[in-house]
Amino acid sequence: MSNKSDRIIIKNGLIFDPLLKIKGEKKDILIEKGIIVEKFSSNNNIKEINAENKTVIPAAIDIHTHIASQQINWVRLLGKENKEFQKNWEGLTLRYIARNYISNGYTFITEANVYPSLSKQTIFNFINLPVLDKAMLLNLGNFWPLEFEFEKGKIDEISYFLSDLLSKCKGFGIKAYNPFEGEIWNLNTLRENIKEKGKLYNFTAIDVYKHLIYSIEKLDLPHSIHCHIEGYEHIEAKDNLNILLEELAKIKIDRIDSSRFKREQICHLAHANSLNMDGDNTDLIKFLNNNKNVDLDLAFIGFDEINPIITSDRRFITNYKDSSGKFNKIIINSNESEGDSYTGFRKFSKSNYNDCILWSNSIDLALNIKNKWQVQFSLNFPHYSHVNKIPKIASWLLSKEARKIFMEDMDNKYLKISSIFNNDNVLDFNDYIIITRASPAKSLGLTKYKGNLDVGTDADINILDIDITKIDSNRDFKSIEKAFENIEYVIKNGNIVKKGDKIFLGYEGKIFWAEGKIYSQEDKLRVVSKKSEFYQKYYSYFYNMLENNVNKDFLKKII
Amino acid sequence: MINKKFLIKKNTEFKKMSDQIKITCSGCSLLCDDIIIIKHEKDIEKILGTCLKGKEKFNQIISKNRILNPLIRKNNSLEKINWDIALDKAVQMINNSIKPVLYGLSNISCEAQLNAIKIARKINGFIDSNSTICQGQVLNFASKIGITTMTLTDIINKSDVIILWGVNVVESIPRLLSKILFSRGKFRITGREIKSLIIVDIYKTASFNVLGTRDLALIIKPDNDIELIRFLKKYCREEYKIPAGGNSGIDKQDLERLISILLNSEHISILTGQALIKPQGEGHPMKELLELIKILNKYKKIGRVSLMMVGGHYNMVGFEHIALAETGKNQSIQFRNGKSVQTEETIISKLQNQDFDLSIIVGTDPISHFPAAISKNLSSKPMILIDNKKSGTYLIADLILPTAITGIECEGLAFRLDHVPIKLKKIIDPPNNILSDAKLLENILMKLE
Amino acid sequence: MEMILNTIRLIDYDQNKEWIHNDIESMEDNLAIGFINPMDFKEMYLVPSLKLRISNKYGDIIIKFKQGKDIPRGIILMPISMWSNQLSYVENKNIIYKNIKVQVEGTRDSPTKLIELINRIKKK
C-alpha cells in the first residue's frame, strides 16, 4: 500500500531544525517530488497535513547499526529456536528491522561492519530492506591487500585503492576495526595494545588508523574514518583509546570547505560508551571539548530481554567465553582473511556493575560533551539495544526525574560511584534533535539531503503529536515518551510511510555510496592494476568479482 | 544460436581479446571464477579451464535432454503447451491447493530463491531446500552449539593442515584441492610442500590418490566416526592414554600423529561431507565434531581449527542466507497468514506423512534422490516442475516449466560453499526465449496477486 | 551375504550427467552398478557374468558389479541414483544414504530397468 501524493503541505507545525537554527517556530513545510520546496510548481493534488500544536522534526538517522550483513544471518541462525529471541526480535527479519526503524522515526541507517568480500550480501539485503535509505561502511581493519602501503605510509596509493574499492562494492565509508589483529589466528592470543608492532606485518595498528585517516581525508569522503577501539567493554580499551587520541591530536588537516554544514571530524569513535569501563570519561570528554576533529556515537544500553552479540573484537569474545566457565554458543567466522566475525547472545542486567557502567557512560558523554554536534545517538543495534527502547532512552536524556526512577534498582556498587545519579543536567529538546538527527547527518556528510528541513533536502520528516514548547520535559517526560512511542507521521521522500499506528512498506529506499575525489585517473588505474594482482595471487576470486552491479534506481552517489 | 561444434572444436585460433570473457562456472558449489569463454558473435566458440563437472554444465546448453517448451501431462504423456496456458495452469493448480510444498531451490539464483519464498508466503505454503538433507544440517547443529568456520582464502593462505573427513572432493568438487592444497599462500609460500592433507574415510576414495609421504590416510570402520571424535575430545581435555589397539580401526601410531597434528598445527581446516550427517548410534558425529573443534580452539596455544561443510549444489548455501534474512529461518519454513510459524516439519516428514496436496519442485530431481517410499508419496499428488533438463522427476511431473541456465543464459547471485557471495554472469541468450528461474517465479507471483 | 551399502558420488557414474546427456540405456549401464572387494567376490562364489541382487526391507534391485581392491571387505559402494534409493530410507526425518545393511546375492536375472523403477514409484 502506498500513501503518496504529488504534493504535501505540513501546516502550522512547530519546527525544530538545529542545522537551520530553528527552535520551535511555527512554519509550513512544502513537499514536492520527494524533496522540500519553497513553493509548489502547481496547485493540483496537494495533500494537507494539519500540524497545529504538533512538533515537526527531521527524520532520525542511525550512524552505527548492524542490519544487513552475513553476521546478522548468523544471529538469526543461532536464534531460530531461542524463544526469548523470537519473542523479542521476531527473527530479526529485514521487514521487521524496517518496520521498527520506521516506527521510531528513522529514514536512514548505516550498516557499520561489512567485509568487502561479503558486500554483495549486504547489497542484496539492502535492496530487500524496504523504505529506508541505507549505506554501508567497509571494515578494512585487517585489509591485507594494503599491507605494503600501510607499512610504507603510501597515502596516495591507499586512497586510490579505497576509492576503487568503494565504487566496486558501492560502499559509503571506511570502518577501522582492530587493525591487523587477524595476523595471529589463535583465538586466545591477545595483544597488549595497539602500539604493539605486528608479528607478520611490519607496522602497528596505530599506523593503520593514521594512514586510513589521511587517505580518507585526501578523498574527502562524506564520512570520516569510523573507528572501533580494540578491547571495547574492557579496561584495555581505555589505553587503546588514549593512544589513538594522542595520535589524533597530532593530525592536522586543512579544510577548504569550513561551512557549518560540513563535517568537522576526521575520526568518528564507534559506541564510545564502551571505551572507559572504569566509568571515568573525563579524559575523553576533555579531549572532545578541546578538539573538534573527533566525534562519537553513544550506543545506549536498552536492557532488553536478550541482545544479539555482533562483534569482530577478539578480546571481547575471548572474555565472553571465559566468564561463563563453559563453552558458549558462538559462531566464529573468518572472512577471506579480511577479519573475523563473532556472533552470540547475551542479556544485560541492571544488577551487573559493568552493564551499568556501559549504560551510564552513554549518558555521561551526552551530558558533558559541550558541543552536541560532536555527539550522535546510536544503539549499536541490535548489540546494545532495540530501537523500540528509544522513547525510554530519550526520557533519560531529557529528564533527570525519569533517569532517577530508572536508576533506583541498579547495582549498588555502581550507584555508589555513579556521577549520573546526582547530576541534574539534562539535554533540551533541541539538543536531542541535534544528536539524533542533525549531528549524524553532519558526521556522515549528508546535510545536503538529510537531517534538516532546508529547501532542496529530502522530505524525511517526523511529526510528533505534542507541542514541545509547552512541555516541561523534566516533569512531563511521560508525554514525551508517549509522543516518541507513537510518532504520528513518518514521511520518507514525500511518502507517508507511517501514519498513526499504520506502517507502509511498499516503497524502496536508496543505497548511498561514495568514491571520493580522485585527482588522477591514470594513477588510480595503476594502483588498481597492481592490487588486482594481489587478489589474483592470494584471494579465492579475482578483484573484479567485487563489482556490485546494482540497478541505478537503487543507488545514490554522494561524492 | 549456439554453435554445436564448440565442444569438439580443437585448436581454434584465439580470437581477438575482446571475444574472451572471464566467467564464473555454476557447475558446483566452488563457483570457479577463472573460466574463459571465447565467443564468436552470439555463440560460445570455446570454453577453457573447466573441470569435468563444469564442462557438463556448459554441455547442458545443447543437451538433447534439455527442456525447451512448457509441457503438460495428459493421459500419461507430455504435451507441448504455450506459456500463457502453462502459467494459467500453474496458477490454477496452486489456487486449488490448500497445503502446497515448494522444494529444491539449490540450483537457482538468490533472486529466484527470494521469489520462491515470496510465493510460499503468498500461498501459505511450506518451503524447503535440498540443504535440509545436506549441508543445512550442519548449520542446524551450529545453531545449537556454535561453530568456527572459514572461507577459501583463509585455507589457501593460512592452512598448514587440511582434513577431508568423509568427503571425496576429488569427485564431488573436482577443482577444490587445486585451489586450496596445490596452491601457494601468503603464509604458505612453498605451497603443497608445507600443507599436510589428512583423509578420514571408510574406504580409499579417489581423493586418497593425492596423498604424499607427509600426509595421513585414516581408514575408519563404518559408523565409527563418532567414537573417534569422542576419543579425541577426551584426549584433548585430560591426560589420556592411547589404547594399544588404537581406536575405530585406526592404529596407535596413526592416532598419535593425528593428535600431534591437531594440537600443534597453525591453521587446521576440516572439510566434511554427507558422511558425518547421519546419526551414529545414539549420537550425531557432526555435533560431536563441532564440540571437538570448540575444545581444540579453547585449549590450543597456537593456531585455530575451523570447519567447512562441502555441499554440492551451486547455490545451496544461498537459500540458507536468503531464507534467514527473509524469514529468520534457514530451511523448512511453514507460512501461515503470510507469516513464518514454528514447525518441526521438514520436507521429508511432510512427504512421509503425505501432509501436502501439491508440490512445486524447482531445479532439482527429488524422484531420483529420495528413498523410493518418499518418491512414491511425492508422485501421488499433483506436481509442478521448474527445471531446465529431463530427470526422474520430469517423468512424473504434471506440469513442466523450463527455465534458462543461470550463469550461462541469465545472471544472478549465488553463494559459494564457504558462504562467500559470487555473481554469475549471462553469456548468451537462452533458447526459445525461455525465462530465468527468477523471472518465471516473479511472473507466477504476479499472477497469484 | 549381509553387506553394508554406501551410496556415493562418482564423477564417472553420475546421475546428473546421465540425465543431461545420455539415453536410458547408458543410464542403466552406469547407474545400476555396484563395487565390491575381490575377496567378497570370491566368498560369494561370483563369476563376472552374474549380477547382484541387493535387498533390504525397503526394496530390492538387481545391478551389475565391478571389483575394486580399495573397497573394504563387507562394503558395497553404489553411485547415488534411483537404483540405490530403492534401498535408502528415512530415520527420524534423516535420509540414510550411508552404511545401510543389505542382503547381497548373485543372480542370473538382468539388472532392474529404469521403467520398472518409475512404475514402482507411480504405482498407487
Overall morphology of chain A? globular
**Which two protein chains have the largest interface (Cβ within 8 Å of the partner's Cβ), and how many residues from each?**
A-B, 54 and 61 residues
Along the chain, the helix and strand elements of chain C come as: EHHEHEEEEEEH
The averaged pLDDT of chain C comes out at 92
Question: What's the CATH architecture name of the domain at 60-397 and 428-443 in chain A?
Answer: Alpha-Beta Barrel
- Tell me the overall shape of chain C: globular
Give a count of the beta strands of chain C, DSSP E runs of length 2 or more.
8
Number of helices of chain C: 4
Gyration radius of chain A, in Å: 23 Å
Tell me what you see in this structure.
The complex is a heterotrimer of chains A (559), B (449) and C (124). Chain A has 559 residues and is α/β, with parallel strands linked by helices. Chain A has a domain at 60-397 and 428-443: TIM Barrel. Chain A has helices at residues 70-78, 83-89, 94-103, 119-127, 147-152, 155-169, 205-219, 236-250, 282-290, 314-323, 353-368, 390-398, 400-407, 412-417, 429-443, 477-485, 521-538; strands at 7-17, 22-32, 35-37, 46-50, 55-58, 60-65, 106-114, 133-139, 173-177, 225-228, 267-269, 294-297, 307-311, 331-334, 340-346, 375-376, 461-464, 489-492, 495-499, 502-503, 511-513, 555-557. In chain A, strands 1, 2, 3, 4, 5, 17, 18, 19 and 20 form a nine-stranded mixed β-sheet that branches. In chain A, strands 6-7-8-9-10-11-12-16 form an eight-stranded parallel β-sheet. Chain B has 449 residues and is of the alpha/beta class. Chain B has two domains: 71-135 and 314-407 and 428-448, 3-Layer(aba) Sandwich (Rossmann fold); 147-309, Dimethylsulfoxide Reductase, domain 2 (3-Layer(aba) Sandwich). Chain B has helices spanning 52-59, 83-95, 110-122, 136-145, 152-158, 169-172, 176-180, 225-237, 252-264, 285-299, 316-327, 347-352, 366-369, 372-379, 437-448; strands spanning 20-23, 35-40, 43-48, 71-74, 77-80, 100-104, 126-129, 147-149, 161-165, 196-201, 216-219, 267-272, 304-309, 333-336, 339-341, 358-362, 383-387, 399-402, 412-415, 421-424. Chain B has a nine-stranded mixed β-sheet with strand order 5-4-18-17-16-6-7-14-15. The relative contact order of chain B is 0.18. Mean pLDDT of chain B is 92; it is low at 5-15. Chain C is α/β, with parallel strands linked by helices and 124 residues long. Chain C has one domain: Barwin-like endoglucanases, CATH 2.40.40.20. In chain C, strands 2-4-3-8-1-5 form a six-stranded mixed β-sheet. In chain C, strands 6-7 form a two-stranded antiparallel sheet. In chain C, β3 (51-56) and β4 form a beta hairpin. The model of chain C has no long low-confidence stretch (mean pLDDT 92). Chains in contact: A-B, B-C. At the B-C interface, α1, α12, α13 and α14 of B face β1, α1, β6, β7 and α4 of C.
